[in-house]
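Q: Here's a chain of 164 amino acids. Please give me its 3D structure as tokens.
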Amino acid sequence: MKIKTILIMSVILFIGWLIMNNSLQPGIVISGAILSVGISMIFCRYCRLINDVRLTPKALAYSFAYIFVFSWALIKANLDVASRVIRPSLPIKPGIVQVRTKLKSKIGRLILANSVTLTPGTLIVEYHDDLMFIHWIDVKSEDVEKASQEIIGQFEKYLEVMYG
């Protein structure tokens, strides 16, 4: 077991504990800390994805920036899809495109795939190594490089710093 993995998982569980309990009473804080570390020590042998997390100030800053980038992409995509629903005369060109990611870590690719799928108008259909097949509501380009830049480019540059 890696200490880094246990530490990361403990912090995540402890923050979740504090949020769910909505209290900073000493008993709750102490029991949450003990449970978080205990659960992490028991189950972290299964946490292979967390090994790729980078604990650097730059990665932490990019993590916070990613929240805003993803939120902005989510807002834009929701407005785009809503306008297509309200005005059905808008042209759509649905199709499945292939994109290639530069991300090497499994957790980075997982977060990228979830980000794309959570953004309205795109849906991951299939995923193999560095290739993703995405159903896109309005295909702007079938070229792998252009489609990659259009769909995943905004997310990838942050995830690359965070996870590699």
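Q: Can you summarize the key feature?
A: The chain is about 60% helix and 10% strand.
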